Amino acid sequence: MQINDAIIYATHKLNSSNSRRVDSEVLLCSVLKCNRIKLYAYPEQKLSDTDQKTFKKLVKKRSEGYPVAYLTKQKEFWKHTLLVNENILIPRPETELLVEKSLELISLYSLKKVLELGTGSGAIAIAIASEKPKINIKATDINNDVLKISRKNAELYKIKNIKFIKSDWFTNINADNYDLIVSNPPYISNDDPILNNSDIRFEPSSALVSRDSGLDDLRKIICKSRAYLKDYGWLIVEHAYNQGVKVRELFIKNNFTATTIKDYNELERITYGKLL
C-alpha cells in the first residue's frame, strides 16, 4: 500500500465524515510521523506492514466516530499542538474567541493576575501565557491526571508563568484579588441529544455536562467570582449557544456588566463583564 492508496482507502471507509479527506491525512501523518506536505510530495512511498495495520486500526476507530484528536493524541489550538487524551475535553476553535477577548482585556486594562478555572489540556492558559509572558496565571483542574497533561503541554512550549493547581472550582483557591477570571466550564444539559449523536459521546462527561439545563457550573463560577476578583475585575466564560440570555442575567444579578460575543457561526458563545 502506497501513501496515495492509503488515503483512497481511508476516505472510502470514512464516507460518513464531513472531513474524511483531512481526517485520513491527519491519521496517516500520525502513523508516518510526518506533516501533510510529505503526503503530497511522496504519494508513491510504500507503507510498512506495521504502518498499514496501525493505520487501518485508526481508520476503523474513526469510522465508528472516535475523535481524531484522541487517535493522534494531540490537538492544535491557538499556535500550539497540545497533548490530549480521553480524560481531556478536546479544545474547540470557538474557544479561541475566549482567548482573544481575554488578551484584549489584559492589554486594555493592564491586567496582571489571571485565574483559569477548569484548565483541561491547558489550552486557554497556555495561549494567554504565551502571548503575555509577564502576567501571572493560576490554572485549576479537579483531576490530577489531567493536570499532568496540562503541565506537560506548558513544558513543551517552555511556558513559565502558569501555576497549575488541583481544585474543584474555587475550593483550593485563596481570595487573591485576581484581575481576570476565565473559564470554559461544562455547560451541556444531561438530556441533550448531542451527547449520544456525535463524536462528543467519546469525551469525558465531567467536562461537558452540568446540571440545571447546563447552567449549574456557570452559576457557581459567576456567583463565587465576586469574592476572588479585585474591584472592577473581569470575568469571562464560554457557554452554550442558547444560554446567552440566562448567563447575562446571572452576570447582572451578581453585579457584573454583561456583554456577549457571537462565534464564527453567529451563535452567542462568550460572555464577559466587569465587577461593579
Which value, in Å, is the CA radius of gyration?
20 Å
* Record field, number of beta strands: 9
CATH superfamily membership of the largest domain, which one? Vaccinia Virus protein VP39
* CATH topology (fold) name of the largest domain: Rossmann fold
Gross CATH architecture of the largest domain: 3-Layer(aba) Sandwich
Q: Strand portion, in percent?
A: 15-25%
Q: Work out the helicity level.
A: 40-55%
Unreliable sequence segments? none
Shape designation: elongated
Query: Topology as H/E string?
Result: HHHHHEEHEHEHEEHHHEHEE
Strand order of the largest sheet: 5-4-3-6-7-9-8
Q: Give the class-level CATH name of the largest domain.
A: Alpha Beta
The helix tally amounts to 12
Tell me the number of structural domains. Answer: 2
Largest sheet: 7 strands, mixed
Mean pLDDT: 96
Q: Return the structural class.
A: alpha/beta
Between the first and last Cα atoms, what is the distance in angstroms?
A: 64 Å
Task: Provide a short characterization of the protein structure.
This protein has 276 residues and is an alpha/beta fold. It has helices at residues 3-13, 20-32, 36-41, 49-63, 68-72, 96-109, 123-131, 144-156, 194-197, 211-214, 216-225, 244-253; strands at 74-77, 80-83, 113-117, 136-141, 162-166, 178-183, 229-238, 259-262, 268-274. The protein folds into two domains: 3-66, Helicase, Ruva Protein, domain 3 (Orthogonal Bundle); 77-81 and 87-274, Rossmann fold, CATH 3.40.50.150.
